[in-house]
Design a protein that fits this description.
Blueprint (H helix, E strand, L loop, with lengths): L2 H24 L4 H17 L2 H12 L11 E4 L1 H5 L2 H6 L1 H6 L4 E4 L3 E2 L13 E5 L6 H13 L3 E6 L3 E3 L3 H7 L3 H4 L4 E2 L3 H7 L14 E4 L4 E4 L6 E3 L5 H15 L5 E4 L17 H17 L4 E4 L5 H4 L4 E2 L2 E2 L3 E3 L1 H13 L3 H11 L6 E4 L13 H4 L6 H12 L11 E6 L4 E5 L2 H5 L1 H6 L3 H20 L3 E5 L32 H4 L8 H18 L8 E4 L7 E8 L2 E8 L5 E4 L5 E4 L5 E3 L2 E4 L4 E7 L64 H10 L13 H6 L1 H14 L3 H18 L1
Parallel strand pairs: 1-2, 1-19, 2-5, 5-11, 11-12, 12-15, 15-16, 16-19
Antiparallel strand pairs: 3-4, 6-10, 7-9, 8-9, 13-14, 17-18, 20-21, 21-22, 22-27, 23-26, 24-25, 24-27
Helix pairs in contact: 1-2, 1-12, 2-11, 3-25, 7-23, 14-15, 14-17, 20-22
The protein binds alpha-D-glucopyranose.
The site of alpha-D-glucopyranose (GLC) has 10 residues, from loops.
Amino acid sequence: MKESDSIFESRLSRVYDELKWLYMELYSNDTHSFDYFIGMLKRQFDARSDELKEWDDARTIVEEWYRGNDIVGMMLYTDCFAGTLKGVQSHIDYIKECGVNYVHLMPLLKTTPGKSDGGYAVADFGTVDERLGTMEDLSDLSAACHRNGIATCLDFVMNHTSEDHEWAVKAKQGDPEAQARYFFYDNWDIPNQFEKDVPQVFPTTAPGNFSWCPEAGKVVMTTFYPYQWDLNYANPMVFNDMTEAMLNLCNHGIDIIRLDAVPYIWKQLGTNCRNLPQVHTIVRMMRLVTEVVCPGTLLLGEVVMEPDKVVPYFGTPDKPECHMLYNVTTMASTWHTVATKDVRLLEHQLDTIFSIPKDFTFLNYLRCHDDIGWGLDYDYLKQFGVEQVAHKKFLNDFLTGKWLGSPSRGELYNDDPRLGDARLCGTTASLCGIEAAEYEQDDLKLDWTIRRDIMLHAFLLTQSGIPVLYSGDEIGQLNDYSYHEDPYKWDDSRYLHRGAFSWDDAAKRHDPTTRPGRIFTSLQKLLTIRRTHDVFEFQADTWIVPTGSDHILGIGRYFKGEKLIALFNFGDDDGVAWVNDDEEFTDLFTGEKINGKEVPVRCHDFHWLLHTYEPAAPVKKEEPELPTEKKEPQVPAKKKEPQVPAKKKEPELPAEKKEPAKDEQPAKEKAPKRKSSKSTAAKSAAGRDSAKKAPDSTTKTKKNATSSKSKSTARNSSARNSGAKKRANSKSTVASKKGSSK
Ligand code: GLC
């Protein structure tokens, strides 16, 4: 047996029983499909380049490589940032200068202009959009990122395909096998039953969850836009082929797979079609699959739901699912706090996050490519007399600048008058008020709005987990209103914050008299502080510090002799935080020495106060213990035991446990075409000065001894080695839906 075969076999044998069990349970003992699935895994394993396999090895030894306080992400659209993938590659120096070592390349696969949902309607999972480059460019870019110590992340849009995907095209032509990959109905009876329980994602821009497909003369499920057809994961061929598509992306050097809209992937009549148990089975299988084929890969779940729906996607300690999840409620609660200037909801929300096991990694962010949905804890807010519909209206009024005195400049998204619901768009800088201040040429206003922007970033970086910047935020980029003129974009206000990156502004980033310079240099300073202090490590204890003010948020962190008291004044007035900690602190940002009893905090400003405890002197044996004058370090009150998510039910044994016949393909299924991943990977590998030996820092002994040192060495050594039309379209679909439902 070849060495690589034995590696595959040994990894597979570790997960085989569970994988088979889950698969058989989900797919009613379909052994043919399962055998095909296993064969596909082996093909993808064989196609993985030696260099990526070395990367896998380094990362499996230092499992927590992605959790360090030095990891910083940035999400960017290839076209907005630099035109093409090659363009992005030519700006790696800038990405590095931003302190970023994880870059999320927004959807870049083949899509249809005007029917793309920002790239989230994929027409071919194995081809890069020709306007952006080729699969080879993608491999080259990820290899170049790796050489520079940067991990790459890509969306895996698994819930749906574009209606121009080859399966959808065949389905339109009436091919039953292709139609079985989606949800097709002869009439509106079943769709109408679904509609009773399934909420709408785009109630204004794409109402309803189904669309009429005139070519097929049938109704098709379209949870998102009418041109995004939901895949039917109850069909094992869909799961097999989609998993293969995901692994192919990993084999092009993608390190982090963002499981787009994952809660939606399983549909069942009579339910809301969100977060069904089968979704977890599929995610768990995907995790197992990556552990076999590409164990260096991380899964990032896009679960934009309330906290109790999000956390289960981490899985359990013995059956993990996603490695990372978005901290969406904290993000939304942050903007609530900007508008209300009342930190109590944020304190409550952070308390929930602080009680989750520390090794559950959250991805923290202020803004992303999507809207801000007001998924707040209204049960908690009820005690203050807050009512959902009125509150959402207030938040939207404030953040769009309609509220008297508000400097924010956002726009509404999917305003649904039926439910009194609307979401919100805008860049961080414009929502902070910088745009209005510049427009009004009001220097004083500019000062405090920039201060607020920096304070929010400091708050972001205070949280445990991975901070991810939205490209452009590092230079305070403002809203882009040009989408109003573009017929492909004008009915989707998310394009407000998806403008082209301003390289002119970026050129001013070192000039402290400019907006980009003020924000960029402050952010860099914050990031440097964060990566040089242990207290920002994920293992730190975290707690809410009462401040005696509803406008000032206090967060405590303690780790390895460092105590941080972080204070954020969300209010419009200068205030005092009654921290009542009579110790001397140093503000890490300004260098100021401050006593922790009562701390003045300017409006829209923050403090990162650090107190370091000297290590206790070693106790000499045999000598009498001398009384020491040193005060005992004030270690934060012991936290509640973290609530471990309820253990998942053990899957029931499939009724019949037939042994699969290993060498046969499923009768119905044609072997999908192999992508050129092998040759592409080989080509890109050939261009590298890779040292084939495994990084010497990645030995198990060292891991235990100097975990954080070996962690960063592993990272670095891995790096070394290695509109009108649209409007018409949605209108006509709506029209046809209505027409045919009659
Ligand atoms: C995710 C994406 C969003 C997209 C949707 C449909 O939520 O973040 O931009 O519209 O999926 O794919």
